[in-house]
Amino acid sequence: MANARGFTLIELMVSISVLLVLISVAGPAYSSFINNNRFDGASQEVSMGYRIARTEAVKTMQTMRLRPLVTNDWSQGFEVVDASNNRIWRSASIAQGITLSGPAQIAVAANGALTASSDQQISIQSSPLSQTRKLCVLVGGHGYIKQGNCS
User: Fold this and answer.
1) Whole-model pTM?
2) CA angle, 99 then 105 then 106, to 5°
3) pLDDT tens, residue by residue, 27-66
4) Quick one: 9-147 is in which CATH superfamily?
5) Tens-digit pLDDT profile for residues 113-143
6) b or e along 79-109 (b: 16 or more beta carbons within 10 Å of the residue's beta carbon)?
7) How many Cβ atoms from other residues are within 10 Å of residue 41's Cβ?
8) Gyration radius of the chain's alpha carbons
9) Where in the chain are the domains?
């Protein structure tokens, strides 16, 4: 048996212990990575929805509206519709832990400006990260994502 190959019980236990330590260190970092990706994805989805509404308004020369799928509940998803309520685009489902809130709709005129007389915003909140971003849309039509409040 002097030529037997393989791992001893001690070597196997040390290897498993090192693996468990690595997993316990990587677990919280992985969770944070997932939450950050969900937050970024929701922010990009809201921004893309507005950009599509504005682009379609200018391209088709008619008012487009970005609105929630369920009345006053942006967290259930949102869509871009034309003046006849034909759906142009629909968002993907919003990730768990992300809450969206905003006005009943954001309407964009054919010139790319808002039909509202004041700036509009949609709030994007991540409960796991305790962070908030906003889609800030100026009356002139310029939209941007900002950490914290629009100003």
Assistant:
1) 0.83
2) 105
3) 788 888 999 999 999 999 999 999 999 999 999 999 999 9
4) minor pseudopilin epsh domain (3.55.40.10)
5) 999 999 999 999 999 999 999 999 999 999 9
6) bbbbeeeeebeebeebbeebebebbebbbbb
7) 14
8) 24
9) 9-147
